[in-house]
Write a structure and sequence with these properties.
There is one protein chain. This protein is mostly helical and 434 residues long. It has a domain at 2-129 and 215-341. Helix content is 68%, strand content 3%. It contains 20 helices and four strands. The protein has helices at residues 2-7, 10-13, 17-31, 34-42, 49-71, 83-95, 99-118, 121-128, 131-153, 172-189, 195-210, 234-237, 243-267, 280-297, 308-313, 319-339, 344-358, 370-386, 389-406, 415-432; strands at residues 77-79, 156-159, 163-166, 302-304. The chain has a two-stranded antiparallel sheet. It has a two-stranded antiparallel sheet with strand order 2-3. A hairpin with a 3-residue loop joins strand 2 (156-159) and strand 3. Helix 19 (389-406) packs across helix 20 (415-432). The longest helix is centred in the middle third of the chain and has 25 residues, at 243-267. The radius of gyration is 21 Å and the shape is globular. The chain starts with a helix and ends with a helix.
Length: 434
């Protein structure tokens, strides 16, 4: 046990087995929704829901354990929201691509990731991100997940005239979420380490007592996995016409993972003073292998989850947090009916409060230096308003480069950042032409 504590650097990080276990459970509770949401989206491609549920649990479990054991970071992984929608609606339904071929495209994007990681290109990318954008990404993601929490709680709802508006605060589920928010906030202020976990548990118990939630259908047996596992069609995905699809998976996964990595590592205090992220090669390798493994199991791209910030807020500092989350995902293969009882009203307060905690990073931005402040602001605003970490980081980096050039500081920008900015500009021009 002592050797494991040394491997995971418990003493240096000021953590313990109990603290890491609570953090892992907290992360799991905030992202367990993917077990039910991912199959509901991918089922529209014709994929068997039971098999996708099993693939979701297996891929999330193994990927999170790999991230925790290899990279030793408290970052959990699972099939990504947004990319699963693109897989279903943008590729399979819009382009008429069979889901087996789409899985092949996901495999190829993961393989390309692994090659880029081995060549050191992905590390160069991470280390090329200007320092002001590190904090901006963390703040933008904080607003993003807080907005998701408010939406899940029913506090804000869509509105055709104003995009968003105030929801029905008298709705029972919304009232319960607000009560959970106040309770969890009070526990946090009181210094209770497991505040987020306790708040979610109490809110869930109240939902059960009030009849606001119920146990869903049972989890499928592991045998169902055979209906999607190793069913991908790589030769078909190699066709030139699908190069665009592979690139889309590659690009969005790259920047979403980069944003999550920066935000969670920043929040946990794991970034060194010179801006370097320790063991970054292992992080990127785990991410690449996770996407490949996910496609083999039968699900869309596996990504790092920003909900990991909830575990960090609960005290998670080492890879044990991610390992605990991964083990819970594997266990979920058999206990999914019990997970279905956790309502959105119970996890929404956690997302809102984690967003609030991440606002502290605004103090790290030099707001009087407009060359840094304007790109940082654009990054912060674009992430929640476009519902995309990739869009926010792309806009921030592109504006940073342009402002440096236009204000006489072109030499301060590295050649790699110029190349990346050119690629981002082409991406925005392509997106704007659709």
């Amino acid at each position: 046990m002592r050797s494991l504590e040394r491997y995971f650097e418990f003493e240096r990080l000021g953590t313990s087995w109990r603290q890491e276990a609570i953090a892992g459970l907290t992360t799991f509770l905030t992202m367990a929704y993917i077990i039910f949401v991912n199959p509901s989206i991918l089922a529209e491609t014709g994929m068997p829901p039971a098999a996708v549920t099993a693939a979701t649990c297996v891929s999330a479990g193994l990927a999170s354990i790999l991230m925790g054991a290899l990279a030793r970071y408290p970052i959990a992984m699972a099939p990504g929201m947004g990319l699963n929608a693109y897989f279903t609606y943008g590729v399979v339904k819009a382009m008429g691509v069979p889901w087996q071929t789409a899985l092949g495209a996901v495999f190829l994007s993961g393989a390309l990731f692994l090659v880029l990681t081995a060549l050191g290109i992905r590390r160069w990318l991470v280390e090329s991100i200007p320092r002001p954008l590190y904090a901006a990404v963390a703040v933008g993601i904080g607003l993003f997940i807080a907005l998701i929490g408010l939406k899940n709680a029913g506090v804000v709802v869509p509105n055709p005239a104003t995009a968003l508006t105030l929801g029905n605060l008298r709705a029972p589920a919304t009232l319960l979420a607000l009560a959970g928010l106040v309770l969890t906030a009070a526990l946090l202020i009181g210094g209770v380490r497991a505040a987020i976990l306790i708040g979610a548990a109490v809110t869930t118990a109240a939902a059960v007592a009030l009849g606001l939630t119920k146990i869903s259908g049972g989890a499928p047996p592991l045998e169902a996995l055979s209906q999607t596992a190793f069913q991908l069609n790589i030769p078909a995905a190699l066709q030139l016409g699908l190069a665009e699809v592979v690139f889309a998976f590659l690009f969005v996964d790259l920047f979403d993972n980069l944003g999550t990595l920066l935000a969670v590592a920043h929040r946990a205090g794991l970034i060194e003073k010179d801006g370097r992220i320790p063991r970054i090669e292992r992080i990127l390798a785990a991410d690449s292998v996770a996407t490949i493994a996910g496609s083999l199991a039968g699900t869309s791209t596996v990504v790092s989850y920003i909900e990991s910030a909830a575990g960090v807020a609960a005290g998670g500092r080492s890879g044990v947090t991610a390992i605990v989350t991964g083990l819970l995902f594997l266990t979920a293969l058999w206990v999914a009916p019990f997970l279905g009882v956790i309502p959105a009203a119970a996890t929404a307060p956690a997302l809102i409060l984690v967003g609030a905690l991440m606002m502290a990073h605004t103090a790290e931005i030099e707001w009087t230096d407009l060359r840094a402040a304007i790109p940082a602001f654009l990054t912060i605003v674009a992430i929640p308003t476009t519902f995309s970490i990739a869009n926010g980081l792309s806009l921030g980096l592109l504006s940073y480069t342009m402002l440096q050039v236009l204000t006489g500081r072109a030499r301060s920008v590295t050649p790699f950042v110029y190349l990346l900015s050119a690629v981002l500009l082409l991406r925005f021009l392509y997106l704007g032409s659709g």
